[in-house]
Design brief:
about 25% helix; Cytidine Deaminase, domain 2; four-stranded mixed β-sheet
């Protein structure tokens, strides 16, 4: 079975002020990537140098063993803690990346000022990404119970898989990919396609936008709000990418052939 456990995220300023930011249900593994990507999605950090340190801190089970279910993230000097209203009021489940927000204004994050991205991907390459994603899903192969997100770098020669992450939550899988990119100093993610194994919800479009990803492709359907945000964000949104067909909902100029 796919493992699901809580992860508490504690955020600390360089000056020492701290607060509990959120608790999310996730599949353990790549936790630092998950936290970094979550902070990108929340609009708290945008570059590797914005995040000073991350460490596991006290979290033990009944036997006193470290659970690795609490992470303390310290922001770099000059990076402000988010306002108190950004703190999640309830646990974020593996099915929801925006649970615990208290108003619609808390859900829609300010768009980063990333430069325009004129990435072009061929239709044939785009159609092949779901199968390439599926072939690398080792946890899904064992459990059949996790989502996947794969980041592909696009060039005239095709698409190179840069990072793949799996998790019981589709939003967590995307956070892990974006967090990996942040920690590798790759922000913004120009010239890339984010392929996801499920549907394209509003939250995934927002996370892609926050990371500077120009193209988001899903094997499932997009929601109406996902399409609206993708149109506004100049993001190419693809859905129902299965076998020999797909639907392009916004900014189709990035798909050739």
């Amino acid at each position: 079975m796919a493992v699901e456990e809580p992860l508490q995220i504690r955020l600390r300023s360089w000056a020492g002020e701290s607060r509990d930011l959120s608790v999310t249900m996730r599949t353990p593994g790549d936790d630092f990537d998950l936290v970094a990507g979550f902070l990108v999605g929340e609009g708290i950090v945008r570059a590797a140098e914005d995040l000073a340190t991350m460490r596991y801190c006290a979290g033990t089970d009944e036997a006193g063993e470290q659970t690795f279910n609490v992470i303390d993230a310290t922001l770099a000097a000059g990076v402000a803690l988010p306002p108190s209203r950004a703190e999640r009021q309830v646990t974020t489940t593996s099915a929801c990346g925006i649970c615990g927000t208290t108003s619609i204004s808390d859900v829609v994050r300010a768009a980063p000022a990333w430069p325009p991205d004129d990435t072009i991907v061929s239709l044939d390459v785009l159609l092949g990404l779901p199968q390439r994603l599926r072939e690398q899903q080792s946890v899904f192969e064992r459990t059949g119970g996790v989502h996947a997100a794969g980041l592909f770098g696009v060039s005239p020669a095709g698409a190179e898989l840069l990072c793949l992450r799996e998790d019981v939550g589709r939003h967590n899988a995307v956070d892990k990919v974006v967090g990996w990119a942040l920690r590798e100093g790759r922000m913004p993610l120009t010239g890339t396609v984010l392929q996801v194994s499920g549907r394209a919800s509003f939250e995934l479009v927002q996370k892609a936008r926050q990371g500077g990803i120009p193209i988001l492709a899903a094997v499932g359907a997009p929601s109406s709000l996902a399409v609206e945000l993708a149109e506004e964000a100049d993001l190419t949104l693809v859905g129902f990418s299965r076998g020999s067909s797909l639907n392009v909902y916004t900014h189709a100029h990035r798909v050739s052939g």
